[in-house]
Amino acid sequence: MSSRQAALEFANKSKQDFLEDLIHFLKIPSISTLPEHNPDMLEAAQWLVSQMEKFQFKDVNIMPTDGHPIVYGSYDKAGKSAPTVLVYGHYDVQPVDPIDEWDNEPFKPQVRDGDIYARGASDMKGQVVAHLKAVESYLDSYDLPVNIKYLIEGEEEIGSPNLEKFLSQNEDLLHCDFCLNADSGILGVDTPSLAYSLRGLAYFEINLHGPESDLHSGTFGGAVINPGNVIAQVIAAMKDENGRIMLPGFYDDVVELAAAEREQLAQLPQTEEWWKEQSNTSALGGEFGYTATERATIRPTLDVNGLYSGFIGKGSKTVLPAKAMAKISMRLVPNQEPEKVRQSLETFMDKHIPAGITWEIDELSSALPGTIDLDSAIAKSAGEALRSVWNKSAIYKREGGTVPVVGMIKKVLGVDSLMLGFGLPDDNLHAPNEKFHVNNFHRGIETYIHFMDNLAK
Amino acid sequence: MSSRQAALEFANKSKQDFLEDLIHFLKIPSISTLPEHNPDMLEAAQWLVSQMEKFQFKDVNIMPTDGHPIVYGSYDKAGKSAPTVLVYGHYDVQPVDPIDEWDNEPFKPQVRDGDIYARGASDMKGQVVAHLKAVESYLDSYDLPVNIKYLIEGEEEIGSPNLEKFLSQNEDLLHCDFCLNADSGILGVDTPSLAYSLRGLAYFEINLHGPESDLHSGTFGGAVINPGNVIAQVIAAMKDENGRIMLPGFYDDVVELAAAEREQLAQLPQTEEWWKEQSNTSALGGEFGYTATERATIRPTLDVNGLYSGFIGKGSKTVLPAKAMAKISMRLVPNQEPEKVRQSLETFMDKHIPAGITWEIDELSSALPGTIDLDSAIAKSAGEALRSVWNKSAIYKREGGTVPVVGMIKKVLGVDSLMLGFGLPDDNLHAPNEKFHVNNFHRGIETYIHFMDNLAK
């Protein structure tokens, strides 16, 4: 019997035990944002350590940060020729408010109609335990086919404020071939999918300053430059009439889509009608020459997220504003870099802002885009694993959003992340009655078993 | 002795009496915005009535409105061949807060260093009394050289909410050749000036609606149209690179400046440096081909007064906003009309707003521009009157601002207004220690005496 077969058999006969372990983990109210739960945070970290120690993982440790600690543990017995996978997860969960809207107590997990209801079930204790149980299934009688490094943080739900520093300080320890980010989901219970690409982010606040203070628009209107008009002009100039972004060199690093991939994207169920329904808009728009799916996933964007100048209350005030502010974010695609985008934006502003207006740009957040080559062993291993378990081909998805952790890992460790998790779109993440599909918990374990073995081939 | 000479002599010997009458009027705390002062409002109106009755004016009346009443009185003995002047003023004053910052009680007038300190001294009881005393000076021994209709309202400081209706309901009663608006000032104690032109106003709020609700800019960015970007584009499109306003037909009704008037404007002390200092800006800008003074007075404008979309708090939120709002005002010059501007704006929006975005425009306020021909008898009569009193030429000013009352009178009665009053830029209007220059009160009386006689010639 192959080690894969043995692991699958062990997983199959251990279903009840595995579910009970998940329930145990879900009972720990590890809410990272509430200081009164700090002891629970530690208990959750210790439970993870106990699991890894059971496997005799190396360097198992609760590593301190300036906030909640990070749980680390590694396995290197697959040898230097086998790939090393950094498995990213988090053990913290969201608060439970509004508590009245829960049908069961959020930290007393309840299985109903094939789902397990508890805070953190889908986001993401279910997937953390699924991966641990895949590892355990192998180790019951064999070695693992790949090397593993667990990086399980306790601050994802509060924006991972200490993760980048931790990555930098432990770059050698975390050295790996790629990252498996299990904080993800599939399109439907019976629609296996995996996200192989995320957009990055370059998000800025732009402030323009004109007159020292607000002026009367009757007395001074026409004579002086109005920063409210100028901010409109500069934002408008950022795109041409075809929706192309006009920052200098903005597209230089953009990887153009291959025809084959465009065909593949066109076959997704995300039609133009679907986008209209999802966004509740009567008409779509954007960069000319690309479908809505392409524009939302593999093309970069430039969006106003916030805009302010002058008097915005009810009624009229004849004010000529002293300043204007815009929050502008750009979603980035491979191989764009936020720092280059910032420089390009500054060059653009320099050119477009007239004398009499001063300006500054503040970076609000940034993240590198990331992608796993669809033809790579990683993507193929994941796809085959999903097909083995679901008996149907997986949908390969590009995500339009940004996972900051993925950007940090790319930036510091230089590796891309494969998003392979088993949440569902209706799992009520961050909301009352969060749930995780029990059968997908088990299928997730099987998928990780297949995935590890596929990778090793 | 001519009637003018007799009136001037009477005014000269009555200086103390006239000042005492002003002081009496200033003691009445006619604050229109505070209901507890309603009896004072009536007392002020009654005092005006008593003055006009002393002159045996016709139809002297406290005419009701839905708010504070309007004092009316007319004189028609100059005959049908003489001009009829509608003299506009107001008997209400601003509140006195912050009371602690006054050096004397605001309704106990005090003369110090040549100024009379009291709430309403400059805005505008001083000028109302000055005109009444000019009339009284004639009537002591002669008839008036012109016909007069007094229109003295009690709601100017609260925006004249009932004036337009009153004008419409009394169109025949108020029929006149032009309006003398005494709610005005001169550039300096020894710098006589008069404003012969005001800009109008067309002020709109524009609302754009995109998706039904805010969307995640990662998931939907690029696929859907962002109203925050669109509002920037449409505002930017409203002007070309030379600062010309691109609303269709916007300049069709704009009266171009004659070379002689441009030369006259160029001689005003309002240099480019002066505008920079006054506006506290490092550089000016606006419509190409015109000076700052021209741009601020006799050229129309299009200014953003308010701008809003999405998230404008601290930090970042990756929101794709559902809507965007702009408050846009246009200062109008002869012979532009707010209603035509509105139609032009709607045509422009229709053309520039893409499918997927709905929009509406609300008018926040509007006023017709007004001007008195510099070559007219009215302007010349006023200029000569000022020169006779100050022994120097008056500066003819165009004002960039809008006086709503002037727009209403133009709209309903069809006549323009000459702004001829004697306030000073540092009179602390609407502020503590409001004052009026006593000597200018007397010079104002003399000026009105000359003006009436000049008009009759």
What would your notes on this structure say?
Two copies of one chain form a homodimer. The first copy, chain A, is α+β, with helices and mostly antiparallel strands. Chain A folds into two domains: 284 residues, Aminopeptidase, CATH 3.40.630.10; 135 residues, 2-Layer Sandwich (Alpha-Beta Plaits), CATH 3.30.70. Helices cover 35% and strands 21% of the residues of chain A. Chain A is built from 14 helices and 18 strands. In chain A, the strands form five sheets. Chain A has a six-stranded mixed beta sheet with strand order 1-2-6-3-7-17, sandwiched between helices. In chain A, strands 11-13-9-14 form a four-stranded antiparallel beta sheet. In chain A, strands 4-5-18 form a three-stranded antiparallel beta sheet. The mean pLDDT of chain A is 95. Chains A and B meet through strand 9, strand 10, helix 6, helix 7 and helix 9 of A and strand 9, strand 10, helix 6, helix 7 and helix 9 of B.
Task: Give the key terms.
homodimer; 457 residues; alpha+beta; Aminopeptidase; Alpha-Beta Plaits; 14 helices; 18 strands; 35% helix; 21% strand
